[in-house]
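In pairs, describe these two lines:
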Amino acid sequence: MSGYAWEVVVNGIEAKVITHPTARLLHLLRDDLGLTGTKVSCELGRCGACIVLMDGKAVNSCLVMAYQCNGKTITTIEGLAENEQHPIQKAFQEEGGFQCGYCTPGMIMSVKALLDETPNPTTEQITEGLSGNLCRCTGYGGILRAVQKCCKT
């Protein structure tokens, strides 16, 4: 395969990936590394289903090019918790924060970024923090309850 080698740390594991320089992080994760928890949806940066953390910040992996990941640390939904559910995942489950689940990985990663930056956000900050994520199933009530539950613990 012709391409360029990119060195990244994904979910705590160093990886060297050879891929075309115009490849997107989304496809690098799914196709090259087999991490399919990050979902393919709009591929335009509008829905948030593909959000991962890059150096701790939420990014739409469909908009990040492979070369932009060189030397970065990426966390996907698979890397959020080691042996059991992360408290955010547990809160989503307990509060009915998902139905079909397609948007859930990106939503959870956005919440992680939000809570890392603002551990006790206001309702307005939660709404703003999730403004890049779309859900067509839940009506957002369960999602907001899940985030608020994480703030109480």
